[in-house]
Amino acid sequence: MERAFFEAGKALTELRDRRLYRSTHKTFEDYCRDRFAHSRQQSNYLIAAAGVYENLTTKGSQILPTSERQVRSMTKLEPQEQQEVWLRAVELAGGKVPTGRIVKDVVQRIIERTQVPNTYQIGEVCQIIVKDNPELRGKGGCWAIISAVNEFSCTVEIWNGEYTIGLQHLKSYNYLPAECEQVREISDRINRVYSSGLEESVQKFLESLGKLNRAYLTDLEAKVLSLLELEIGV
Description:
The chain is α+β, with helices and mostly antiparallel strands. 49% of the residues lie in helices and 11% in strands. It has helices spanning 4-17, 28-36, 40-58, 68-71, 79-92, 100-113, 177-193, 200-209, 219-232, and strands spanning 125-128, 143-149, 153-158, 161-166, 170-172. A five-stranded antiparallel β-sheet has the order 4-3-2-1-5. The protein is flat. 27% of the residues are buried.
């Protein structure tokens, strides 16, 4: 039973990565909701926790986590930092399995120790770097337009919504102000056109526009986007 969350996370990882859910459901999120009665976020928590558990076992840790919540705060750390945090947390717990609160406190100290200044500016365009963060799955490479600058993160707008993302998952394109404005305009246009009811090929085209490594559309891309706007009536 102590490994139940790990086994669940590993099974979900295989279901997602091999797309086994497609035999009965269109999306992984729908599958998790119907099959397990929980959200995709909860599935992602289990998947990430299984990765942490596996990482700790590679270093031969004798005392291992027994629940997903104990390691939730560790999932965004680098593997070496995860091991460091767990060993310290076990020590603080008197050689026993630490609570999630103890682990979270140790994680916070690690973050403060490695803190770097948040130099991003509102309106700046960045690229999303997934970097083993399951919550960012599918968003790698997307344009991220800074809308708020926080202490350890930024709130960003991408073509399909707003998210709060840690600094380690952002990389600036170093665009000029005029280029940033162009990206915002294109992103807004994509957002107005995109919907889950569109044909899959059209969705993929729009998603690809939101991941361009340039701040402009080619003539052909612009024409196709304009045609879609006309067709949909936006």
